[in-house]
Design goal:
Blueprint lengths: L1 H9 L3 H56 L5 E11 L2 E13 L5 E14 L4 E10 L20 E8 L1 E8 L2 E3 L10 E7 L4 E2 L5 E2 L6 E6 L39 H10 L7
Antiparallel strand pairs: 1-2, 2-3, 3-4, 4-5, 6-7, 6-8, 8-11, 9-10
């Protein structure tokens, strides 16, 4: 009888086993939920970092195209228009520089087009880039435009663009389109891959804080005219005892050592040791 009682103390009943299994299941469920939340947070952070990096890469490539085609020595043009494409703000940018041949006829040396295209199957915008002309992009692998396998073709650069807009900046004036043969002073490009949402004014779009902007100056080597205004300086207004303000003997309060000692004497500074 004693042995049976001792054995029963070390055993588990069916009810106790069910309680243990239920508690184990709750612990596993809670652990998996925490893991899924952490994994989701990490995925969103990684996606946000990759999205920001992709935006910077696209803007850098556009800036390089503008710097190269709008360089001095060629007759360059920049044209672009913005439009609303199935609820997405999109744009088309055309960069082109020309030269004059032996017969004084204008010929295209290089042309680059950046534009978006809406995919109804995916309900997203694709960003494309096209390059053609006499100047090849890879001068090591390509010798002439006929050897380039991508010349004149629109190559997909990015998928899932939700905002692509260009603005021309002429001083304080901002224009949403540029069709002039003259070059603007600067072009501001904005791009985003963030999802559309309802804005404060009730419209659907991408919040401004989710858009990456870059202002690209046109022809950075151009001479900027300025006018120097000569002004006469009345030397009689200067104190002969006044020292150079850049003198190292000036203390942190902006007073010269001699002036500081003089002010201390006048205010009873002799008593200060």
């Amino acid at each position: 009888m004693i042995n049976k009682r001792i054995q029963s103390r070390f055993g588990l009943t069916l009810l106790e086993m069910m309680v243990v299994v239920a508690m184990t299941g709750l612990i596993v469920t809670a652990t998996l939920a925490v893991y899924q939340r952490m994994r989701g947070t990490a995925t969103r952070l990684i996606g946000s970092m990759e999205q920001s990096q992709l935006e910077d890469e696209v803007l850098q490539k556009i800036a390089e195209d503008i710097d190269r085609l709008a360089a001095p020595g060629f007759e360059a043009t920049i044209n672009f228009r913005n439009k609303l494409n199935n609820g997405y703000i999109s744009a088309r940018l055309i960069l082109e520089n020309s030269y004059y041949g032996n017969n004084s006829r204008k010929k295209t040396f290089e042309r680059i087009i950046w534009q978006t295209w809406y995919s109804p199957q995916d309900d997203v915008l694709y960003l494309y880039r096209m390059h053609d002309g006499l100047n090849v992009e890879d001068k090591v692998l390509e010798k002439n435009p006929e050897d380039s396998p991508s010349a004149g073709l629109f190559i997909p650069v990015a998928r899932g663009v939700t905002f692509f807009e260009l603005r021309a900046q002429q001083g304080e004036t901002i224009l949403s389109a540029w069709t002039s043969e003259k070059l603007p002073r600067a072009v501001r490009v904005g791009i985003s891959f963030a999802p559309l949402q309802e804005l404060a004014d009730g419209s659907i779009g991408v919040p401004d804080e989710d858009i990456t902007y870059r202002t690209i100056a046109i022809d950075r080597t151009r001479m900027i005219p300025y006018q120097f205004i000569k002004r006469d300086l009345d030397l009689g207004l200067l104190d002969e005892q006044q020292q150079d303000p850049n003198d190292l003997s000036m203390d942190t309060t902006g007073m010269i050592d001699g002036d500081l000692q003089e002010s201390e004497t006048e205010s009873g500074g002799d008593d200060i040791k």
